Amino acid sequence: MVPLSGGVAGAVTEPTGTCKTGQFPVVDGGTSNLIVDCLTQAGDPGANVTAERITDFPNAQWHNGAAHQVVVNCSAGSPTLTLVAGTANGVILPSDVGKSITSVVLGAKAPLPAKDFIVSRTSTTITLAQNTLLACVKSKVLIENGYGRASDDASYTNADNHVTSVGAHFTSDDVNMTLSGTDIPEGTTITGVAGNIATISNNTTAAGSGQPISIDSNAALEDNFNANGLTPARTTSTRMISDLTTTKLSATVSSPNAHFSGSDIGLLVQEKGVVAANVYITAIGAQAGANPWSNSATLSANALKTGTGLAPAFFGLPSASAPVAGDYAVQLATAIELSPSLVDGVRPCSEDVPTGTLLDGSWQNPGSKTFDLATPFNNLDLNWLSDAVIGELGFKTSVVDFAAFVSQASTGYNIKFPFLPTVLAICPTTNNASSYTFLGETHGQSSLVQGWGKPGSVGLRAIESFEAASGSVTTSATVDAWDWDSNTTTPPQEGDKIAFGGTSCHVIRPQVLDTYNHSFPCNP
Question: Would you say the pTM of this structure is higher than 0.90?
Fold first, then answer.
């Protein structure tokens, strides 16, 4: 990494700062913007904030899920897809049964209907829950890595704990999964299955026929460790890691930060020069202690080289409901005193005149051609991005490009800015104010047809559901900054951080909107 603040000899007064953090809407189970407002007080000349980390609220959930792609042929009005031969066209796995499947081509030209999923498979064919809409030749489809599906034909009587559906294709693997619907209480799970009838944990609140329902994973299942991917367990995301270890001529790879799960089976692995093309994960190693993940996985082909701490390595393709590459996902607003030596036409630094600026950041998915680790500069030290990175937020300006990276740790999500360019443009020893708004849903996601992808996966950022009729939790998000001067050769260290703090947010259910408090913007 190339630090951009000036080196400072001897003891210096570092910048200080305070931040307020919030999220809105403050409704559990729904998409929510993350808002971060900060004021930075200047330190000595040459002492500047050059890196920043936002630790999101612990009950935040960023887009979750990944997919693997297969290329198929199909006839119109048939439930059968046939795999096109060739390793580049993907693989159909036993663990794909019960998972949502979506056409890569959407809209009127999509051969698959919404809310479709895999009922059964062979190594060369897929049987769908619904018939295809159009014939297809070498058509690309995405198979989700997480369990979950939907159907529109449910029927039930009032105050009863049974739901009937032919289209849902209930199986014994559905036991303990969440069943959701209009007349089904929050947090209801499936307790038993007999043919087309599911027994549920709560009675219905009204009678219904031809009703939409969804079957999905839940917090309890996400805490399970499952190495074979055949039953619901922890759903992983498309991600980048920077600590992959490989051995030449061995198919076993390891990474403490990848957090491998059975849902990774079938996901594409990309590590240029180390892993061959079209290689995917075939198995997961032993459980890592009491954690719901493993530190190792087996690939479909041996590694080409031996390596430790390899980066970047990518796992999986974006799911059907993932943000589209280039989607507007964050806005950075600043009030800063710009230096006329870098920005034409602004007032002299001696006049202390601030300028308001707005920058829009776009989302990039790991492994995509637009995921750019050269932004903001070529020597980005990946060690600071040690946790699995699930997305990049790229900013382009007339002076310099820069980026933030959303990473998933075992305790939650962080947004890391390895380099903040304000140091390049501001007048020396001046304060500055900044406000981030990270969107809960992008334009590409909000325009998706209902039923594309895995149920419950639409959205960029959400507040975790209580999965119950009532609940209450107060959590905090925080901001830490670093002055990474020119003598620093290692990533920012925890002992060197400048704590900017944050504020708490109270989430409660049931939410009564007529008494809703909009104070910055969380319940008090």
Answer: yes
